[in-house]
Design brief:
The complex is a heterodimer. Chain A is mainly beta. Chain A is built from one helix and eleven strands; from the N terminus they run βββββββββαββ. Classes of the chains: A mainly beta, B mainly beta.
Chain lengths: 115, 111
């Protein structure tokens, strides 16, 4: 089974801190994604990447950046954490074009609280 | 702008009571419509992809159908273990690969 592993299940950070959320997949998938999930708003795409060192903005990239130095690893960076970034963060990966057939594989999520 | 609307927001059924969840969408050039299941504290789990109007897919007690404007997830004789949030998502034909999700339907099956 494809595994998408997010390094932390729960994280508490202070306002203004620089925060790194790590995601690793073990199936050589080309595409990787970061979403945030909030009650009443659903999942919203922050950033995605087609390949190493490539990145594309999603729907809500403000306040975030990403890094993909290796194919299996996609990091989400909160440059200066704010309380409105308190959320569940979900990483996903897919293998185009099979991603259409087998879907996107999600990690279990990181619940980030910014205080 | 791509939009996905799911209804109802929440649904409570008795075990064995069949029903349907709705997903209506507005997208420029649909490449695929996805259904996911999400359990509390976990990431979404892939169920189906539908590509064209008239297509149907089944998995155990679940059957997904697609028209040009909406998709239905039919649940036949549900069991308590079918309780979860069901998410619908679309992928548009604009080149970007990300999915646009609806807010989900929270389904509770009572024994």
């Amino acid at each position: 089974d494809v595994k998408v592993t997010q390094s932390s299940r729960y994280l508490v950070k202070r306002t203004g801190e620089k925060v790194f959320l790590e995601c690793v997949q073990d199936m050589d998938h080309e595409n990787m994604f970061w979403y945030r999930q909030d009650p009443g708003l659903g999942l919203r795409l922050i950033y995605f990447s087609y390949d190493v060192k490539m990145k594309e903005k999603g729907d809500i990239p403000e306040g975030y950046s990403v890094s993909r130095e290796k194919k299996e690893r996609f990091s989400l960076i909160l440059e200066s954490a704010s309380t409105n970034q308190t959320s569940m963060y979900l990483c996903a990966s897919s293998l185009p074009p099979q991603g259409w057939v087998y879907g996107y594989t999600f990690g279990s999520g990181t619940r980030l609280t910014v205080v | 702008e791509d939009q996905v609307t799911q209804s109802p927001e929440a649904l409570r059924l008795q075990e064995g009571e069949s029903s349907s969840l709705n997903c209506s969408y507005t997208v420029s050039g649909l490449r695929g419509l996805f259904w996911y299941r999400q359990d509390p504290g976990k990431g979404p789990e892939f169920l189906f992809t539908l590509y064209s109007a008239g297509e149907e897919k089944e998995k155990e007690r679940l059957k997904a159908t697609l028209t040009k404007k909406e998709s239905f997830l039919h649940i036949t004789a549900p069991k308590p273990e079918d309780s979860a949030t069901y998410l619908c998502a679309v992928q548009a034909g604009g080149g970007a690969d990300g999915l646009t999700f609806g807010k989900g339907t929270h389904l509770i099956i009572q024994p």
